[in-house]
Design goal:
Helix 2 runs antiparallel to helix 4, helix 3 packs across helix 4 and helix 4 runs antiparallel to helix 6. The chain is mainly α. The N and C termini lie far apart (68 Å). The chain is 77% helix and 0% strand. It contains seven helices and no strands.
Length: 169
């Protein structure tokens, strides 16, 4: 919906593309990060205030470190959205860029170039996502998902087994 307005305000060029990416990504990024920071454990915040923490110190030492792993995941997600907004921004009246190249090659029926360009977009997106995922694992090792383990078998005493037999039979 903003693309026609942005064309009027910024023209057709790099400024319009950046504005589309910014509007599409920034506000959802702010909302998601604020929810993530808002989910910080209440007892940690109260403990910091009890120990005499100022508001700035609370943000620096409790809220941001507690939400940092989620913020890294949010950045990965929004980066994918930004790629989508880039493609959308380039569709409208541009004379350069990835989408312009794809449209031009499709017009001349050079579909091998079209597929190659689409594959390059996918490879770049996958590479950046995997790089950010590895960076997140390195920066936040305590947030790695542990493998599901089977619970250890609990020995059943003869009395509980006898009670179970009586109750079920």
């Amino acid at each position: 919906a903003f693309i026609p307005l942005l064309i009027l305000w910024a023209g057709i060029g790099e400024a319009q593309k950046l504005a589309v990416i910014f509007i599409g990504s920034f506000f959802s990024l702010v909302l998601m990060i604020s929810v993530s920071v808002g989910n910080t454990r209440r007892d940690l915040v109260e403990a910091a205030y009890t120990l005499g923490s100022s508001d700035g110190s609370l943000i620096k030492r409790v809220l941001l470190p507690g939400a940092a792993p989620e913020i890294a995941e949010i950045l990965r997600t929004v980066l994918g959205w930004a790629w989508t907004y880039l493609i959308v921004a380039e569709v409208v009246g541009t004379m350069s860029g990835i989408t312009f190249f794809i449209n031009q090659q499709a017009r001349y029926r050079n579909f091998d170039n079209v597929y190659a360009a689409i594959m390059m977009i996918g490879i770049i997106g996958l590479t950046t996502d995997m790089t950010l995922a590895c960076l997140g694992k390195g920066l936040f090792p305590w947030k790695r998902k542990s493998r599901a383990r089977k619970p250890a078998a609990i020995p059943v005493s003869s009395r509980s087994a006898r009670n179970r037999t009586i109750c079920s039979g």
